[in-house]
Amino acid sequence: MSGLQRMLDDIEMEVNLTRQLIGKDALDDRVMAAIKQVPRHKFLPADFRFLAYDNGPAPIGSGQTISQPYIVALMTDLLNAKPTDTVLEIGTGSGYQAAVLSKLVKQVYSLEIIEGLSVKARRRLEKLGYNNVTARTGDGHFGWPEHAPFDGIIVTAATPYIPQALIDQLRQGARLVIPVGFPFSYQQLIVVEKKAGGKIETRNILGVSFVPLTGVCDTENTKMIDSCQIVKSYKRAMVLPILRIFSCFSSLSRTADFSLIALSKGRE
Fold first, then answer.
1. Using CA atoms, how far apart are residues 178 and 162, in angstroms rounded to an integer?
2. Which CATH number, 3.20.20.330, 3.40.50.150, 3.30.1050.10, 3.40.50.720, labels domain 3-259?
3. How far apart are alpha carbons 165 and 204 in whole angstroms?
4. Backbone angles phi, psi at 36, to 5 degrees
5. Is 67 a catalytic residue?
6. What is the tens place of the pLDDT at every residue in 218-254?
7. Which of 9, 53, 121, 134 is the most buried (most CB within 10 A)?
């Protein structure tokens, strides 16, 4: 069995294990086709390409990770993107999630706060021919107002609150998919949908573990004056006991993006 097929099978296995939480027995065929088309190994540093098709996170440098394939597929599915959509990604990382989205929508805009990662991701995406992805360095808390409103927004790092700017930049009927919670603590993957008249509806999906969304906290809009300091203190804290369960991730346990529901299979 090829590594790619094993990864696809693992995604289907986790969908089956979490079907009651995510509310479906299978992910959209378009999403799975996009996952199949994007060569995940090309978005990893050479030293970690052996992890490319494991259903787990992997380091990409600067203390960041490429997310577990199941989580990438699930978040993409939850976005409910259409071929005519323009979407925003917060947290470009290596560019893998943006590449997957590019197969499903008209245009992807992506922000990465770490300049080194941002530059490498832009070059990688251009080299691989993902011409409908526009990426730049920037603080994701504030979105990308010049290209708003968006038909969907996906955030690939956890935040203790939902930035108001991202909600403001959602088009009516659009979704925001975002992990919410403090670093190294319990986090919940949440879908936010903007209804008619600007009404906001949220739905909790499942427990996850993501690296923190860094940048300047928008305290005026969120009314969380101390949130920046809280995040900084949590970054210095030790991993809470719930994450110790996942010792199979070894050093990745502090930075991994994965589901807390089902353990990923180890390398075969």
1. 8
2. 3.40.50.150
3. 20
4. -65, -35
5. yes
6. 444 343 333 443 333 333 332 333 333 333 333 333 3
7. 121
